[in-house]
Specification:
The structure holds 2 protein chains of 2 kinds. By secondary structure, chain A is of the alpha/beta class. Helix content of chain A is 35%, strand content 10%. Chain A has 12 helices and 9 strands. In chain A, the strands form 2 sheets. In chain A, strands 3-6-1-7-8-2-9 form a 7-stranded mixed sheet, sandwiched between helices. Chain A has a two-stranded antiparallel ribbon with strand order 4-5. In chain A, a hairpin with a 2-residue loop joins strand 4 and strand 5. Chain B is mostly helical. In chain B, a hairpin with a 2-residue loop joins strand 1 and strand 2. Chain B is built from 23 helices and 9 strands. In chain B, the strands form 4 sheets. Chain B has a 3-stranded antiparallel sheet. The N terminus of chain B is likely disordered. The chains are: A alpha/beta, B mainly alpha. Chains A and B meet through strand 5, helix 5, helix 6, helix 7 and helix 10 of A and strand 1, helix 3 and helix 6 of B.
Chain lengths: 451, 589
């Protein structure tokens, strides 16, 4: 993908409905909750807004290189036998839907590595020559509706996601046409970005905010000045920069409940640590903790976790020490393929475990409030377009019915329909199609899912 | 799948104004320097290079010096570029004396084609957050050594006076031109906010943070000067969108292209005195930059990216097969290629043929065993290699190691590399419905060579349509293992002899890899590809149809000079593409 024609900044953001949660209410919620559990502000507040009305948070999780042949569960939808590959999901099977038989957004049955990731959450029509993304990814579309009253519209977490320059093989979230949002691989930096300085006094925080605002004023002034030098596509870049600056300015006006993050500052792994695959699990754990904190502290309602990138050839000690992941998927034994896929499924199960450990007063968990979608960019490591495995979890069973293995291979619906279903589950009921496809395989929600 | 003409190769359809080669005429055709003690295989090769069906190069004898006569009716649209990580790091090092590794603090670079360029990546809140943190880090570090960048004493000269001077001095360097009154006023406001509560240093620090986040620093801003009166016969209205870069903007382009960093004082002085606005002045500065050792970084950066060597340093190899493998070996390989390219371009006369075939290299002691040499080699001087096995950059350990796998070679990767990077051929995607996985050999079955495993590609016509082009070129390199080591056999098995070269402009039977690189060194397509790659690197963008004329001039000139790389770089600097910013005429929004 090399977007040659960045489009004019399109207004992808619906008018902002500002339902500002007052700090007083937030603190009230905290006060009542803190007697019972470490952090339960969301549950307390949600009791007012009506629990069980559907998921409140959306989390997308990416893992690379598909799965190996024979990953599918067997047996009937409601009483299936878990496969060896997916075994780590067993404790959560009642809160999950496993999907089979989906078709990806690539034009060929075979895709190049540089097509899968930009396609998978955007419904774009992949093309080996040049994949163009013409709309925001589904998480951003949802965020623009449900996450407008939080300090961050969305947060993008990565583990080894950007160990090389950003290109079509390591970006998946898009804010607009051909405008990727990059993942942050360093938990320590991510914490700083979200929570800043949790121990600072209100006066100190106000002072910092004033300093940042004065800097942003100057930056905005500069952008206004140089904007006039350019037209068309180049001016659109300046406009996007301005828009981002304004968005940060707004965030500075919003209060983050910093106490909620206390004790969660990840230790600094150093640049080497973040890049060291021997530390993969540790880095992933820290990022997953931060995702949980971000939802609990209501700093955002939409997040994504990108585990490496397509075609990654990582070798993880104790899993695939001898051959890189990509090489294993191409030419090693079925057992070796399964081992590394089981490792990634295990990482995903740990994400679910963490979300499910946060229990609200009414016994519901953060997982029940969060729709988690696990996806990969290809089918069985040989660049196939079909079937692409996707798994859903959480959301409390409304409106996505849980506890099922749904094999859709008789219809082969396109993943765009899953994206439409996600939108419906998150309250965007009007959406009928998403992305570049408008054929019958690609339009409308997956009825089987929403039941 | 189709293999077309190289992207941007000269086309007879390119519309050119034949009014002269004003700027280029200033560049003397560099004589090829023969390396003492080494036979330079480039001698005489220029004659062998015979482009087919190409128009004779323009030889307008004596254009008026200083003329800005347009050469091309059309120019590609210039893009707004944001600094890469290295450019940011280098700039703060040169201006503030702060040498920090900001590679993790700054947002990662996007690529345009093979090259890191932030020309097409849109800034999001993610970037703003990153730039904010990086600026804080740099400003904090600067304040600890403020005496090095500011000689103003607030105690005697007053806080506000010192702040003004700081903003003007440092801002002038960071923005690569004098600070305007509007910018000064705006930064003084920031200074005032910072000063409140934290005193003078706090104010300076905050003003510096702001400068580092302002577009005047982060982007290569190009306002340009509107051109009136370019009235040349045959020029239509499209030339209206052409703006001449200001001397400061030209200095900035020049410095980032040849030094990968911000302009130095001498270059800014040349901009201030407007000598840079004259062809002689521009050429003199370009030559000064190119002749300085500081050009090594940019030359190394171009060649490592062109050769796909990004990430080489973190490549892993099978420790059982390669017990001598270490990060030092990889670092040595990379250093060798960078030093070699730098030497070829800046000292050895700079021909493409030399780059592709030179019988010497700058062998690192850690890499010496791979070449069958003693580790006592001196990496600082050229070492003559066994010319039966080595010669030119493609047969260096770095390239052969990078385009290979963990414990074995990959003719597919190597073949693709040659066709895409060296010949600029465009290979399309596999046809629908194809399983691209190769049959895994049974464990314990009779060993086969890597080349034999590829035969499955030929048996299936759907695979063969591409792989008949890719694999044979890669198989030519099968005498070089996964770390570039020469081998007579592969695990005792005979390595097949190469098939004839097809689908290039230098087709025919080839004997071995040495033969192949000699052949590529004479290929007009490979020359045009190299010129196109340098063009992409220099402009931070891919060429478009509107660049055809400019690229035709460049490639013609490149051929005319016998593939002189130094001349190619200077020609780009003197070209209209470089001296102007072209943007289609916009309707006012």
């Amino acid at each position: 993908m090399s977007p040659k024609h960045p489009p004019h900044l399109r207004s992808v953001m619906p008018s902002r409905r500002r339902q500002h949660l007052s700090r007083r209410r937030l603190l009230q919620g905290l006060g009542a909750a803190s007697l019972l559990a470490p952090f339960v502000p969301s549950a307390a507040i949600r009791a007012e807004s009506g629990a069980g009305a559907g998921p409140k948070n959306l989390l997308l999780v990416f893992w690379p290189n598909g799965l190996e042949r024979g990953w599918e569960p067997t047996g009937p939808a409601d009483d299936y036998a878990m496969s060896v590959t997916l075994d780590a999901f067993s404790p959560f099977r009642d809160k999950m839907v496993l999907l089979g038989g989906l078709k990806g957004g690539m034009t060929n049955d075979i895709l190049a590595h540089d097509e899968g990731m930009p396609c998978m959450w955007t419904g774009a029509k992949g093309n080996a020559e040049e994949t163009r993304v013409s709309n925001p990814s589904i998480d951003q579309v949802v965020a623009n509706v449900i996450s407008t009253d939080t300090p961050f519209r969305s947060l993008e977490f990565g583990v080894g996601a950007l160990t090389k320059p950003a290109d079509a093989s390591n970006v998946m979230v898009f804010t607009g046409p051909d405008e990727p949002l990059l993942a942050e691989d360093d938990p320590n930096r991510m914490f700083d970005r979200i929570f800043g300085a949790p121990t600072a006094s209100p006066e100190e925080l106000a002072r910092r905010s004033a300093r940042k605002k004065s800097v942003l004023d100057a930056v905005g002034g500069g952008l206004d000045r140089v904007r006039g030098y350019y037209g068309g596509q180049e001016r659109a870049k300046i406009d996007a920069h301005l828009e981002a600056v304004r968005s940060i300015e707004e965030r500075l006006d919003q209060s983050v409940d910093l106490s909620c993050s206390e004790g969660y500052q990840p230790h600094d792994l150093g640049d080497e640590g973040v890049l060291d695959y021997a530390m993969f699990e540790e880095v992933a754990d820290l990022q997953m903790d931060l995702i949980v904190r971000s939802f609990m502290c209501q700093v955002t309602r939409v997040a994504s976790l990108q585990l490496t990138f397509t075609g990654t050839d990582i070798r993880i000690p104790g899993v695939n020490p001898d051959f890189g992941f990509h090489q294993v998927m191409h030419e090693r034994t079925a057992g070796e393929k399964r081992d590394i896929n089981r490792f990634f499924v295990g990482m995903m199960a740990r994400m679910l475990e963490r979300l499910d450990q946060e229990v609200y007063m009414d016994g519901r968990t953060l997982l029940d409030d969060t729709l988690v979608v696990f996806g990969t960019e290809m089918s069985i490591g040989n660049h196939g377009n079909y079937p692409i495995p996707f798994f859903l979890a959480g959301g409390g069973g409304n409106p996505i019915g849980l506890g099922r293995w749904l094999d859709l291979s008789d219809q082969r619906p396109r993943t765009s329909r899953l994206m439409v279903s996600i939108a419906h589950a998150m309250g965007l009921h009007e959406m009928q199609s998403f992305g570049d496809y408008s054929d019958s395989d690609s339009v409308g929600p997956l009825e089987e899912l929403l039941s | 799948m189709s293999i077309g003409r190289p992207h941007g190769a000269p086309s007879p359809l390119a519309r050119c104004l034949c009014s002269g080669t004003a700027f280029w005429a200033l560049i003397p055709l560099a004589a090829l320097v023969v390396l003492p003690g080494c036979q330079d295989s480039s001698a005489g090769s220029a004659a062998a290079m015979s482009p087919q069906n190409e128009p004779e190069p323009e030889t307008d004898p004596d254009p008026e010096p200083g003329s800005v006569a347009p050469q091309c009716e059309q120019l590609g649209t210039a893009v707004l570029r944001r600094l890469t990580r290295r450019q940011y790091e280098n700039s703060v090092r040169d201006v503030l004396g702060v040498d920090l590794d900001l590679s993790r603090a700054l947002p990662s670079d996007a690529r345009v084609g093979a090259f890191a360029s932030n020309a097409e990546a849109t800034v999001t809140t993610f970037h703003i957050d990153k730039y904010m943190v990086a600026a804080e880090q740099v400003a904090e570090e600067t304040i600890t050594q403020i005496d090095q960048v500011s000689d103003c004493n607030p105690a005697t000269e007053g806080d506000d006076e010192c702040a003004r001077r700081f903003i003007e001095q440092i801002g002038g360097r960071l923005f690569r031109r004098p600070v305007t009154d509007g910018e000064l006023a705006s930064l003084q406001e920031v200074y005032a906010v910072g000063r409140e509560g934290e005193g003078y240093n706090g104010g300076i620090q905050l003003a510096l943070e702001a400068m580092l986040q302002m577009p005047e620093f982060l982007y290569l801003i190009e306002e340009g000067i509107e051109q009136e009166g370019i009235e040349q016969e045959g020029v239509d209205s499209e030339v209206e969108g052409r703006r001449l870069l200001t001397p400061y903007e030209l200095a900035t382009r020049l410095s980032f292209m040849l030094w990968n960093t911000t302009p130095d004082d001498e270059l800014l002085d040349a901009a201030a005195s407007e000598t840079l606005a004259t062809p002689e002045g521009l050429l003199a500065q370009a030559e000064r930059l190119l002749d300085s050792p500081r050009a090594t970084e940019a030359i190394g950066s171009f060649h490592t990216q062109w050769l796909g060597l990004e990430g080489l340093e973190s490549t892993a190899k099978d420790p059982e097969r390669y017990p001598g493998f270490s990060e030092d070996v990889l670092a040595g390989m990379l250093r060798e290629t960078v030093d070699f390219a730098d030497y070829v371009v800046r000292e050895a006369g700079g021909s493409y043929t030399t780059l592709m075939t030179a019988p010497y290299s700058f062998v690192d002691p850690a890499v010496a065993p791979i070449y069958g040499l003693s580790p006592s080699v001196d990496p600082a001087v050229p070492t003559v290699l066994d010319t039966n096995r080595r010669g030119g950059v493609l047969l260096q350990a770095s390239v052969l190691t990078q385009h290979a796998r963990y414990n074995k070679t990959s003719p597919v990767l190597r073949g693709l590399f040659v066709r895409r990077n060296v010949l600029c051929q465009h290979l399309g995607s596999p046809p629908p419905g194809l399983d691209t996985s190769l049959e895994e050999p049974e464990f314990g079955s009779d060993p086969v060579t890597t080349a034999q495993m590829l035969e499955a590609h030929r048996e299936n016509p759907a695979c063969a349509v591409c792989h008949d082009l890719i694999d044979p070129v890669g198989v030519v390199f099968e005498h070089y293992g996964a770390m570039g080591e020469y081998r007579e056999t592969e695990n005792g098995l005979t390595i097949p002899s190469p098939d004839p070269l097809v689908a290039t402009d230098v087709d025919g039977p080839i004997v071995d890899a040495r033969d192949l690189v000699e052949r590529l060194a004479q290929s007009a397509d490979a020359h045009a590809c190299y010129a196109t790659q340098v063009f992409r690197f220099s402009t931070g963008r891919s060429e478009t149809g509107d660049d055809e004329c400019a690229l035709e001039h460049l490639t013609q000139r490149f051929e005319q000079t016998g593939g002189n790389i130094r001349d190619l770089l200077l020609s780009i600097v003197m070209s209209e593409t470089f001296r102007y910013r072209h943007e289609p005429v916009q309707e006012e929004a």
